Structures are given as C-alpha cells and as structure tokens.
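PROTEIN DESIGN WORKSHEET
SECTION A - STRUCTURE
LENGTH: 86
TOKENS:
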C-alpha cells in the first residue's frame, strides 16, 4: 500500500470521522424521510429508507426530487384499499 492509501485508511479509521459521517447521514435521512412522509410519498420513503447514499439521495430529494410523486400515490392507495377491506 502506498503512502496516500495508508493516509486515507488512517483518516477513515478515525472514530471522529466515522461519527461525523454517521451523524451527517442520519440528519439528511431523517429530514428526507420526514418530508416524504408528510407528502405521503410512500415509494420515495421506501427508497430513502433502504438505500444508504451518505446523504446524497436524501439531499436531492429534499431540494429537488420531492416535487414529483413517482408512483402518483398508486402504491399508497393500493395499500389503503387492501387494509380497508379487512
């Protein structure tokens, strides 16, 4: 391993850096999930919950992608219909 690679490994091994990335991702994921739930975007909620992108997808959703409900509420209405029949 060359010097640069060892420096990167040492940097990423630092508990402070790991904590920063954890808090960074948790903040953006929480905000994006809150926004998706408030807009009743179930499909976006599931995608954001499942995929870990270190905040990239979450930031895109918060500031740009939330304008579109990618399934137009069909999934949510399907679930509501299934649950109301019981």
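SECTION B - SEQUENCE
RESIDUE ASSIGNMENT:
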């Amino acid at each position: 391993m060359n010097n640069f690679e060892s420096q990167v490994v040492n940097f990423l091994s630092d508990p402070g850096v790991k904590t920063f990335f954890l808090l960074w991702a948790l903040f953006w994921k929480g905000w994006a999930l809150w926004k998706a739930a408030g807009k009743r975007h179930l499909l976006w909620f599931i995608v954001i919950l499942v995929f870990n992108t270190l905040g990239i997808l979450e930031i895109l959703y918060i500031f740009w992608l939330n304008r579109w409900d990618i399934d137009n509420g069909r999934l949510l209405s399907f679930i509501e219909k299934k649950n109301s029949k019981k």
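SECTION C - NOTES
Residues 20-84 form one domain.
DSSP finds five helices and no strands in the chain.
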